[in-house]
Each structure stands twice: as structure tokens, then as C-alpha cells.
Recover the amino acids of this structure.
């Protein structure tokens, strides 16, 4: 699972209902920075929330169980995928982890989904076309 899908649930966004059924059905692997990435999005959206809600969302981020995947497992593969598909390194890491462990990927990111399809990495849910901001 990447941060785009996880944040959708944490912030109760429109596509949360599509992601939520999968969140607690599996054990998730992610790079160690996923919590930082999620906390950053919450703080960026903080203008729309009151302080207690922000603190509660940040606590949700800390409580959610992830298995951290060491950098040595995905580093080279992520560089290859990032340059091949011209996606962010963050996205390439999630793709690399999914491929290295033969896992389906849970993402709501359109560019990452295109790269995932090309790499023949299975999806947890069908691609959702989110409008670009």
C-alpha cells in the first residue's frame, strides 16, 4: 500500500470506501518513510482541520502497523523503475517492494498505476481515475 491509498482512509476522503475494506485484511509492507509521507499530507491539509482532529489523524498514522522494508531490498530496482517510467522515486520504491515480494499494490495514484500495469504488478483494486489537481 502506498501513501495515496492510506491517506484516503485516514482523512476520510471520497475514495476511502473503496480502500477501507482492504486495509485491515492484510499485513502491509512499506518503506520506513511512509509515516512521514502521510504526516506531511495531513499537515498540508491542516488548514481545513481543527487542532484536535490533526492530532488524532497523526496518532492514527503512528498506530497503523506496517512492516518496514530495508532499503537494500528495493534501492536498485527502484532506481531502474523510476528512470524507466519517469515517476517519483517514492512511487518507484512502492512498486519495487510489491515486485520484490510478489505482492499486489494498493494505490490510488494514476501514474503509479500506469507503471504498475507495464511492470505487470497486480493491483489490489482496479485503477481509480482521480482528478489531477
Amino acid at each position: 500500500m502506498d501513501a495515496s491509498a492510506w491517506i484516503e482512509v485516514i482523512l476520510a476522503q471520497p475514495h476511502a470506501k473503496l480502500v477501507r475494506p482492504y486495509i485491515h485484511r492484510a499485513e502491509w509492507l512499506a518503506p520506513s518513510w511512509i509515516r512521514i509521507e502521510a504526516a506531511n499530507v495531513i499537515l498540508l491539509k491542516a488548514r481545513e482541520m481543527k487542532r484536535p482532529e490533526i492530532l488524532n489523524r497523526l496518532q492514527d498514522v503512528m498506530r497503523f502497523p506496517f512492516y518496514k522494508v530495508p532499503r537494500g531490498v528495493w534501492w536498485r530496482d527502484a532506481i531502474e523503475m523510476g528512470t524507466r517510467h519517469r515517476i517519483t522515486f517514492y512511487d518507484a520504491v512502492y512498486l519495487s517492494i510489491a515486485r520484490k515480494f510478489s505482492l499486489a499494490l494498493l494505490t490510488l495514484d494514476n501514474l503509479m498505476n500506469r507503471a504498475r500495469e507495464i511492470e505487470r504488478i497486480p493491483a489490489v483494486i482496479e485503477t481509480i481515475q482521480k482528478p489531477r489537481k
In short: The domain at 3-118 is CATH 3.40.50.1010 (Rossmann fold).
